[in-house]
Amino acid sequence: MKNIIVLPIVLFSLVSCNQSSTETDFKKIDVKYPITQKDSSVKDLYFGTTVADPYRWMENDTAANTMEWVKAENEVTDGYLASIPFLPAIQSRLKELWNYDKYSAPFKEGDYNYYSKKTGLQNQAVIYRQKEGQKEPEVFLDPNTFSSNGTTSLGGMNFSTDGSLCGYQISEGGSDWRKLIILNTITKEQIGDTLFDIKFSSVAWKKNEGFYYSSYDKPKEGSQLAGKTDRHKLYYHRLGQPQSQDQLVFGGEITPRRYVGASVSENEKWLFIFAANSTYGNELYVQDLTKPNAPIIPIVKDMASSVNLFDVDDQYFYIQTDKGAPNSKVVIAPLNKPQSENWIDLIPEQKEVLSVNTGGGNIFCSYLKDAITKVLQYDMKGNKIREVVLPGLGTASGFNGKRKEKTVFYSFSSYTTPSTIYKMDIASGKAEVYKKPTLQFNSDDYESKQVFYPSKDGTKIPMMITYKKGIKLDGNNPTLLYAYGGFSVSITPYFSTSDIILLENGGIYAVANLRGGGEYGETWHNQGIKTKKQNVFDDFIYAAKYLKDNKYTSKEKLAIQGESNGGLLVGATITQQPDICQVAFPFVGVMDMLRYHKFTAGAGWAYDYGTAEDSKEMFEYLKSYSPVHNVKEGTNYPATLIMTADHDDRVVPAHSFKFAANLQEKHKGDNPVLISIETKAGHGAGMSTEQTIKAESHKWAFMFYNCKVTPKK
């Protein structure tokens, strides 16, 4: 769940318009919803309470009746969207503005600098490489050749220490299940067979002999995308041997864990194993790779805190942890006695939340101050070298590199600044622009303002509000309010060219940093979990209230959006307060809170949510806000566009199917309640450019039409 994907970034350059435009009459578009069958015999008993589940059949996403329903719903939705007169203009403009080069920061492997580049309307970014002194870069890997329609994407790449071997994963149709292919990087030829059924895994190389990877047993035929996966296994694969002979290292029946991952130290002496049963808290183990059959030694076994072993030298393991430090700190652990009672604080906890990267033998500590990045550079002894001078208030990320590197790269962006890549000299701290995108957008015309508004219980919640300078706050501005609020995920400033469509039409983009997130550490996270989850919904509801009370917008001009856990947020919000906004976008949401843990890796989300089997109290609490169970008969809900995908095997599409069916059955009023089910797509990652432009065009057309806004060039 943490890896969530924010909707794709696009740009649409439009001038401001008067919302009472005479160019569009905004007449009602008639909608005839498909007839959705109900099975009243399906019921569950929870602590003496019977709960009906008439749309249980939708959980079988490969069944003929489910696929027929999906087809019928898509026809209704496509017909509605096609009736919006300015949809073609939006799509055309998006294609125009998408046509610019997009780069990633380079990284060094062996003799080459590698980077990704997506040119124009390419569906997937291409991996290039270039040696020092080489005049022109060469293509190393082109994911656009993986499939004819751009729906097969690169799911990760890991190089051996000397850079001579590379393991890359591919995702078909957006699925979390991956195929793994090994390349000789010199010849770019495949080595050995393709490995199958890899999920939630990196590739951790052990010299050039083999590597570690993680996966689950594949669910039975017909339920590969929805079947429960709760016993992760760490394997070792020796090059040249078949996958069937891979050695189980950790997990499975012997040490059952829902999530298991591994990495190998840069000096190739140590294997680090991370294991967990939920999305927060993990165990930590190490194994000495220099000694044959060395035991796997536990460092932390209680899963009561987050621990990340990020480096090692000849004396110490370097660990980031929130054990006894809710905002996190850096400690060192002696190699011969690494358990927590022997830890020594290296970089103490501060008031701001910490995340750590290393490069060039330095530790770069990124701190969040009210969701804004501050970066401090330390040596490996914990001595502060400097505060890195950033271009402004926003989000900086990167600062990764091997110990021998003299430079590191980082990117910087904000709600008004396109993501720019910087190259920094580690010794001097001097940074220069390395790559800057060329967009039809003038950052100087826009501004972001941070406010702190009171939630229902008086807690101050930060929110960033972005708009064109000089905007008139008369309550008539179309506004999109976005939030997430869960799994300790921090929503920090980012540049979305898609949102510029709204801004250049006199609109406002607001992002609230709700409890349940990680913006203020574990204390903030824990205020929005289990029986405190209502705090998250209240924070969101009061964000909307603030925007309306302070004349940024009105109910008739307000749209709300969230994805995944944020989709749950939007679903719960509109079922609790149907009159909160004009438009709602619950995307790939967790909507059935009584059964979420029965699919894929959903059981691991219980740290945040709890489950209906935990206790009567927990069952009643979940049922009280579960969107599927709280749609009320005869209620006028906002104009709602639900989005999901047929290959989403993280939050299975049945969540959205059930919610849509309930809304369409019980909703009363003229507002449309639609669902769009993308085919050959998953939870968001790896979407093709074509799919991205389609989804964004539909979103903005739907919002503008239902908020009575005509976009103009």
Please give a quick description of this structure.
16% of the residues lie in helices and 32% in strands.
Describe the overall structure:
The chain is an alpha+beta fold and 713 residues long. 16% of the residues lie in helices and 32% in strands. It is built from 10 helices and 40 strands. Strands 33-34-36-35-37-38-39-40 form an 8-stranded mixed sheet, sandwiched between helices. Strands 3, 4, 5, 6 and 7 form a 5-stranded antiparallel sheet that branches. Helix 5 (534-549) crosses helix 6 (565-576). It is globular.
Q: Output the number of helix runs.
A: 10
Helix percent band: 10-25%
Instruction: Write down the Rg.
Output: 25 Å
Q: What is the straight-line distance between the termini? A: 38 Å
Secondary-structure content class: alpha+beta
Give the overall shape: globular
Uncertain runs:
1-22
- State the major sheet: 8 strands, mixed
Let me know the average pLDDT: 91
What strand order characterises the main sheet? 33-34-36-35-37-38-39-40
Strand content: 25-35%
The number of strands is 40
Task: Name the features.
713 residues, alpha+beta, 8-stranded mixed beta sheet, 5-stranded antiparallel beta sheet
Task: Describe the secondary structure blueprint for this structure.
Blueprint: E1 43-46, E2 49-52, H1 64-82, H2 87-97, E3 102-103, E4 107-109, E5 112-118, E6 126-131, E7 138-141, E8 152-159, E9 165-172, E10 177-184, E11 189-190, E12 195-199, E13 204-206, E14 210-215, E15 233-238, E16 247-251, E17 259-264, E18 270-276, E19 283-288, E20 296-300, E21 307-312, E22 316-321, E23 329-334, E24 344-347, E25 353-359, E26 362-369, E27 372-379, E28 384-387, E29 395-400, E30 407-413, E31 420-425, E32 431-435, E33 446-454, E34 460-468, E35 479-482, H3 497-503, E36 508-512, H4 521-526, H5 534-549, E37 558-563, H6 565-576, E38 583-587, H7 606-609, H8 616-625, E39 639-645, H9 654-666, E40 673-678, H10 689-706
Helix pairs in contact: 2-10, 5-6
